[in-house]
Backbone:
């Protein structure tokens, strides 16, 4: 091996490759699938943010939907109230709003451990969407805000179907954010996060500021949540409290654990599982052609079973399974051992 | 003034219900450090089990005689709750006892979703709320301006009695001592001859029995049950356990009464009404945790080198 490229360049190149692949993928699939691909995108960045907080830093958050809520309403309000802003500025502000909320939540939560942190974040996710009921003039109550975004440049209108264009924007933002995350995770911050997770006392003896590190993890992670929420609002054209139930927050954590804690790859498998498990269980229930009242609810019951079975099969997540397989594939033949 | 007293009374009834469920959360967490998200569902199936017992097992002639039918319905509800809890412990949690800490949390979510949808689909007509029979003295207790249904009084009495009984059992009995030992240090407890599987199963059984009682009494009090009630009440109960200090029996009960009172009082007096009550619960929770990160009665974190 000759000189290694710096990680930033590697990550950028990988992101560029992914973007090209995804654009090709959206070109050969129908609008419905394009929408699903974009959905995987925004879940991916939400779960990846959670991976940094829960996987790398060991702070279990049951309330990451709250930050998506903040991001979604930031974009919705900006589009409606400040139409002059371009969509990228709206998304950037959604990231900032999410990060700011995370800074506050992190500062409040830095002393909390285990179930106390879980309880406080869950309470945040349950309580926050109720704010929309309190200020119906601003947030339009439980109906939520709907809006249309004209993000396509004039030259492309009619050339590229809108969902395809939207899924490009979503993935471009997601990949950019992932590059930032991957660099942070690989660098000094990633090391301090893991040190604090493994042993707070040892980390502080080694000169790590434990409280500050935990707050920083919250900030980065919830900024990702804000971006995810903003992208969701951009994609669906609505922001409604009904999309940000505690069930969403719990699904994000489920996706993270299913995919595998402790690596950003796990977030990818988790996001795909989150979107496609539901699609598959829907299809499966349809296949059984049951009475319609059962057919409507059975997918969710199946989803529960799939969740249990997958975790039982891969307690370390899908990425854990993949890594085991990878190690087996890469293991050199006995005679070559020691030469490579 | 009379509204305030009435809301206080309602809050105490709510708190008594939440306490019965919060005890299950706090015990399970104390022993195996698992947030058992399916525990709310154990409460829900307890209510449905009680309803099924009333509909199909209690003979027609004694359905209106509450002191015959209530015990049968309670036994039915508790039996269903305990059976479900045993099944989920055996098949969803025990295989993961040495897995990463968050893995059983996710199977708990899976169990929760599955149980909700299973009951919704396969219990007759459970897609909508079902009426629950009032298997207790009808009518209300009237003290001055306060009116509380007798079933609410029953709920308070049973909740207080059972929490005291549980506290005594854990502090005085042999198995209780084994439970406390396992909670403190599972490995040392094992060396002292405690069988951890038995302790864990007992913990789940006790929690489920309380949840089953809560399910039946909830149905008797409100006269209707639905499949969402487990998840919603479960979140309140978990919050109560956290507020009181996870692992502490007294904390869970005190936390539950605080949550019950905040819920009803905020619903009555705070702007926004009942849809907004959870925001105030959140505020109370954060305020308590800022000053006591281990909850009201929780043990302070020991720093282990």
Residues:
């Amino acid at each position: 091996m000759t000189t290694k490229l710096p990680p930033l360049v590697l990550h950028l190149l990988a992101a560029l490759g992914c973007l090209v692949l995804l654009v090709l993928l959206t070109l050969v699939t129908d609008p419905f699938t394009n929408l699903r691909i974009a959905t995987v995108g925004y879940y991916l960045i939400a779960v990846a943010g959670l991976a940094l907080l829960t996987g790398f830093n060991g702070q279990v958050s049951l309330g990451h939907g709250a930050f998506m809520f903040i991001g979604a309403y930031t974009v919705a309000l900006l589009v409606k109230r400040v139409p002059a802003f371009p969509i990228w500025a709206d998304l950037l502000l959604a990231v900032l709003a999410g990060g700011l909320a995370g800074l506050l939540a992190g500062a409040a939560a830095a002393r909390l451990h285990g179930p106390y942190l879980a309880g406080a974040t869950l309470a945040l996710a349950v309580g926050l969407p109720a704010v929309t009921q309190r200020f119906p003039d601003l947030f339009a109550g439980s109906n939520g805000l709907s809006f249309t975004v004209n993000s396509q440049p004039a030259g492309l209108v009619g050339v590229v179907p809108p969902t395809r264009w939207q899924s490009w924007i979503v993935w471009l933002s997601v990949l950019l954010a992932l590059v930032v995350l991957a660099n942070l995770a690989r660098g000094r911050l990633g090391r301090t996060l893991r040190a604090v997770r493994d042993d707070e006392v040892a980390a502080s003896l080694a000169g790590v500021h434990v409280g500050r590190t935990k707050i920083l993890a919250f900030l980065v992670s919830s900024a990702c949540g804000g971006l995810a929420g903003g992208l969701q609002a951009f994609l669906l054209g609505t922001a409604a409290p009904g999309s940000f139930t505690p069930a969403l927050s719990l699904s994000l954590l489920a996706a993270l654990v299913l995919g595998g804690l402790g690596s950003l790859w796990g977030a990818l498998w988790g996001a795909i599982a989150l979107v496609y498990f539901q699609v598959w269980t829907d299809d499966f229930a349809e296949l059984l052609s049951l009475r319609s009242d059962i057919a409507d609810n059975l997918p969710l019951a199946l989803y529960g079973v799939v969740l249990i079975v997958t975790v039982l099969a891969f307690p370390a997540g899908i990425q854990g399974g993949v890594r085991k397989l990878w190690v087996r594939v890469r293991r050199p033949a006995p005679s070559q051992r020691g030469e490579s | 003034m009379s509204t305030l007293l009435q809301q206080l009374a309602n809050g105490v009834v709510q708190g008594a219900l939440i306490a019965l469920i919060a005890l299950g959360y706090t015990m399970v967490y104390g022993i195996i450090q698992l947030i058992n998200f399916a525990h709310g569902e154990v409460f829900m199936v307890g209510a449905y089990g009680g309803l099924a017992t009333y509909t199909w097992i209690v003979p027609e002639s004694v359905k209106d005689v509450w002191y015959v039918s209530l015990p049968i319905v309670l036994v039915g509800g508790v039996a269903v709750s305990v059976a479900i809890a045993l099944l989920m412990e055996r098949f969803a949690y025990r295989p993961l006892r040495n897995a990463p800490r968050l893995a059983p949390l996710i199977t708990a979510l899976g169990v929760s979703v599955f149980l909700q949808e299973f009951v919704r689909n396969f219990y007759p007509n459970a897609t909508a709320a079902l009426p629950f029979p009032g298997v207790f003295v009808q009518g209300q207790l009237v003290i001055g301006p306060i009116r509380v249904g007798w079933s609410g009084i029953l709920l308070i009495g049973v909740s207080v009695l059972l929490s005291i009984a549980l506290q005594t059992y854990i502090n005085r009995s042999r198995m209780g001592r084994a439970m406390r030992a396992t909670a403190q240090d599972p490995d040392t407890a094992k060396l002292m001859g405690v069988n951890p599987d038995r302790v864990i199963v007992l913990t789940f059984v006790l929690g489920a029995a309380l949840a089953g009682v809560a399910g039946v009494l909830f149905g008797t009090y409100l006269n209707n049950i639905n499949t969402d009630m487990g998840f919603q009440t479960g979140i309140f109960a978990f919050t109560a356990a956290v507020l009181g200090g996870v692992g502490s029996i007294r904390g869970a009960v005190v936390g539950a009464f605080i949550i019950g009172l905040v819920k009803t009082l905020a619903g009555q007096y705070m702007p926004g009404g009942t849809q907004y009550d959870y925001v105030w619960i959140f505020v109370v929770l954060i305020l308590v945790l800022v000053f006591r990160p281990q909850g009201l009665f929780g043990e302070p974190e020991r720093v282990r080198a």
